[in-house]
Each structure stands twice: as structure tokens, then as C-alpha cells.
Specification:
By secondary structure, the chain is an alpha+beta fold. The protein has four domains: 85 residues, PRC-barrel domain (SH3 type barrels); 66 residues, Thrombin, subunit H (Beta Barrel); 98 residues, Alpha Horseshoe (MgtE N-terminal fold), CATH 1.25.60; 113 residues, CBS-domain (Roll). 34% of the residues lie in helices and 23% in strands. The chain has 19 helices and 18 strands. Strands 1, 2, 3, 4, 5, 6, 7, 8, 9, 10, 11, 12 and 13 form a 13-stranded mixed sheet that branches. The protein has a three-stranded mixed sheet with strand order 14-15-16. Strands 17-18 form a two-stranded antiparallel ribbon. A hairpin with a 7-residue loop joins strand 3 and strand 4. Helix 10 packs across helix 12. The protein starts with 11 loop residues before the first strand and ends with a helix. This is Magnesium transporter MgtE N-terminal domain-containing protein. Pfam families: CBS, MgtE_N, PRC, SH3_actinomycetes.
Length: 431
Amino acid sequence: MTQPTPRPTVSRVYLARLKGTAVFDPLGDQVGRVHDVVVIMRLRGAPRAVGLVVEVSGKRRVFLPLTRVTSIDAGAVITTGLLNIRRFEQRATETLVVGQLLDRQVTFRDGSGGGTVQDVAMEQQRNRDWHITKVFVRRAGRGGLMGRRGEGVVVDIDEINGLAGTPEQQGVTSLLATLEDLKAADLADVLHELPTARRLEVASGLPDERLADVLEELGEDDRVEIVSSLDLERAGAVLDAMEPDDAADLFRELPAEKAAELLARMEPEEAKDVRRLLVYEPYTAGGLMTTEPLVLSPEVTVATALAHARRQDVTPALSAMLFVVRPPLETPTGRFLGVVHLQRALREPPHELIGGILDKDVEQLLPEDDIGKATRLLATYNLTALPVVDADRRLLGAVSVDDVLDNLLPDNWRGADEEVTDEAMTRTAHG
């Protein structure tokens, strides 16, 4: 199938018009059509659009986070990869634009009357979040009736009241709204300090990907408590959204029976990565590594490599290094060839092939190497990540500096005032 030509994302997208738009994967294959748009209302600031509800084959509706969308306009939506095929279930904190916002009655803050919502527009901000900024409102006709004779006007989101619904509806999300803009690590700190019942209440209201990010930052006791409180379907969806190495760490902390139940609820591909990691001891390169570093073939251009490095779902530590291999590109890959450092790529012409700028001498880890060796190599060579290869030089994954730090800090570091303790130093020396 002919791949649609990527076009620059338009600055403003009207969401009612987006319904029915075809959704394509990076290879140009159509995977579904937009059914609705999911937004989160906030007490302060504009509502934030977080994802699309996409109707795939069999009229199944699934959730596509906007962080996985590379281009969006009235003609096509292009994604970064495959859709999660788990059926979409709306959370209490979420509002559907087409299903719930259109035809909602609102009033103008200047006292000029009211009208019905006909469409809303979202715009991408500098931090790449999408905010609802404009509302197309059909003013009331004569006698206060809504009709075709009413004037249609486009107004800023802060010029109307009533878009978020009733005060009772807002009360459900009031606490979550105050936490909306926190980084995952900071939200993890907040959850850690909350009473148990409140912690579980907040966690249950977070979107799957947001909760996954927070669980990656929480200590052992807190995340086991949260995951154990979720129903199996929800827990499986959250674990799917976690980095495989973090999910594997969590599985090691769960009772064996619970872990087996949750593995069965995960998407097969995600569960396969976790099972691979569970084979290794916790404080080895195999136990620490992520199975999803940035992996490319040597025939890729510098421009394409830099585009991959800009992916929002990749940590800064991993995005600083591109791992180059022979096909297949999924771990375990074909033969590992070397790495391209981001700084080197930035200095090369966009059309240059990355196979010509490889660092072939980068130090490598075997999966059984301990955390001490990984730490020493990262520090000695000032690297942010190291490749993990098997005896046949196939790339299995990568250990990043943040993976090492997470495991060197004491288990209670989030609630402790002391600096890194003897426990961390012992782990460094002995793995």
C-alpha cells in the first residue's frame, strides 16, 4: 500500500471534523478510523486532550495516546507504531468530545446569553501537549431557543462557562486536577505521602499511561499495593504501558500466583518481553536492561535517526545513543554493529547513512554481568547507556544510567533524608 506522505501537524484541529479520519501506521497501512477524542477537564487551565478512540476491525474501539501520534490533520492521522488492541474503557476523569461535549449548553461569561457547543478545537503547546483552546458555539435563537437562526461564533475556552459540566461532576476529579501538571516522579512523592485509602483512590483515577509512569517511580511496597488493588483487566493494561524492565521488577515483588494472573492479562508481545527479563537475576545486566532501546539498521539516514531520538516515550538517557544492528530490529536483534552517539549525529549531514558514523568500540555487557561492572563502565567512559549482547553478539537490550541509579539507591530512598547508604555501595561492589 502506498504510504501517505507525512505532513506538518496543523496548529489547530477541530475535533468534530476529525471523527471518521483514517489512522495509519508508520508503514502506511490503515489501522482504523477516529471515533472520538478523549480530554481531561482541569480546575485550572484549559482541558487537555490525551488521546483518540480509534475504531479498528470488527468495530472494536481502542485507545491511542496522542503521544504516539506523529501527524494529525483532517485527512489522516499517522502513528508511531502498532495500536494496543485492548478495548477502550472510559475512566471517571475522562470526557469524550463527540459523545459528551457536543451539544452541551454553555453560557458566555460576558453575560450575552448562552448557546450549544458545535465543535471544539485543540492546539499543540510548546511542551507538545494538546489543549482545548477554542469552542464553536451556536448562540440561542429568539426566545432562548437553540436553532439554525442562531449565530455561530468561535470563542476562547475561557470566555464560556459550563463546558466542564456540573459542580458535582467536577468534584470527582478535583484532587486529580491539582496533580495534573506534576512530573511522574513528583506525583510518586505525593502518592507516597497520602494515606492508603486516598493513595488508591488517586491511583485508580489516573489514565493507564500516567499510572504506569508513576509506578515506575514508586517504591516496592507502594506499587505492589496499588497494582494489587486494581482489577485484573486494568492492572494488565497498566503493566502493558510500563517499560518492560520496570514491569519485570514489579512482577518479582508480587506473589507468584498474582504475577501469573497478571501476565496472562497482558498483551502477548508485552508479556513476552517481561518473561525474557524475569529469567535473569535482578542485579545483573539482563535483569536491569530495557528490551526497547532505539534500534536502527545501518542504512538509515541521520535525519531519520534524529527523528527516532525525538520520541517522547524514550528516556533522555536512552535517546542519547542509537543502537545499530543487522535485521531483525526487534530484540533479540541480528548482529550488533555498534552505536551512534546523538552528539555525533547532530554534527553530520542529514542525508549521511548512520552506518558510516558508527562507534564500533563501545563497551558491551553480557546479560550475566553484575551491576558493579555496568556502573564502572558507565562511569569510566562517561556513557548514558550500554548495549547488552549475547554470545552471538545479538543485541538483547540496553542498560541505562537511570536503571543503575534506581537499583543503587536504598529501597526507602523516597522517604529518607540520608544520602546513598552502605547498602547501595555494597550492591555496587557485589552486584
